[in-house]
Amino acid sequence: MLAHTTHRPFPLPQGPWLMKQTWNDLLFAHWPVNEAHLTPYIPPGLELQQWEGTPWISVSPFLIDPLRLRGCPRLPFVHRFLELNIRTYVVNNGKAGVFFLNLDASSRLAVGTARAAAHLPYRYAKMSCHSDREYIQYSSRKQIPGYGQAEFTGSYKAKGASVFHAEPGSLLHWLTERYCLYASGSKNRLYVGDIHHLPWTLQEADLQIDTNTATRSLGLIHAYDPLLLTYTKRLEVLFWPVRRIMP
User: Fold this and answer.
1) Fold observed for domain 19-246
2) What is an example of a Pfam family matching this protein (predicted)?
3) How many CA within 13 A on the CB side of residue 192?
């Protein structure tokens, strides 16, 4: 992986990577949204990015298996868990990345560790995932005080066998090929974490949504069906330590 870097928009970070995750059966569901609904979430130091005048969000359910720290064997109770993330797209000093509005995980230990070490907005959720030979059935449910149940349930699958990479300069490339994440801590502190992987291997996908109150719980309003949809069978990802960049 580290020998292939020409697809990256900026060089690899200095120092050794800290963690490796393998993402399995990942769905990318993308929606354009109203800028006014997103700006309250964007911390000082980050600028909300837009594609042709409109910001986007992405919802991704997937399975992490395995997760391991560099030089360590698989960790009990945290090497395999489900995740659902909701993200948008930001830039800091010319370095484009992602900003997570929500991160659900089925492992309480993973939630606690990520919140403490990476300042990411993880929450524990009751989650399940299984395949019926055709579709992947996925469910994430959690209670939010003052709102009720935030839920994402549905089924998805790859549509056809053709695998492709997003075309540089396309909206899909802009949404997927991101190599750092930003997080906001207490006292308006801003953090960045670099990642690396090979270019996304994508397939066209089919999604049947049963319930999606996960985005609505964040005050986001969008069309029922996503405008862009892809599936990735497997992607290996390297993570470097999250570091503070301001103040």
Assistant:
1) Acetoacetate decarboxylase-like (2.40.400)
2) DUF2071
3) 17
Chain position carrying tokens 């919802």: 59
Cβ neighbours around 209 below 10 Å, total:
15
Lookup result for tokens 């393998």: 22
Q: Which residues contact 124 (CB under 8 A, 6 or more apart)?
A: 104, 105, 106, 107, 108, 111, 142
Rounded Cα gap, residues 229 and 219, in angstroms = 22
Query: Which among 140, 141, 18 is positioned nearest to 69, based on CA atoms?
Result: 18
Q: What is the pLDDT of residues 120-153, one digit of tens each?
A: 999 999 999 999 889 999 999 999 988 899 999 9
- Give the span between the Cα atoms of 22 and 63, in whole angstroms: 8
Alpha-carbon span 193 to 37, nearest angstrom: 25
Task: Report the first-to-last Cα separation within the chain, whole angstroms.
Answer: 33
Amino acid at 229: L
Tell me the backbone φ, ψ of residue 59, rounded to 5 degrees: -115, 130
Ranges assigned E (strand) in the chain: 19-32, 47-48, 56-69, 81-92, 95-105, 122-124, 126-131, 136-144, 148-158, 180-184, 190-196, 203-212, 228-239, 243-246
The single residue listed with the structure tokens 């994430």 is 140
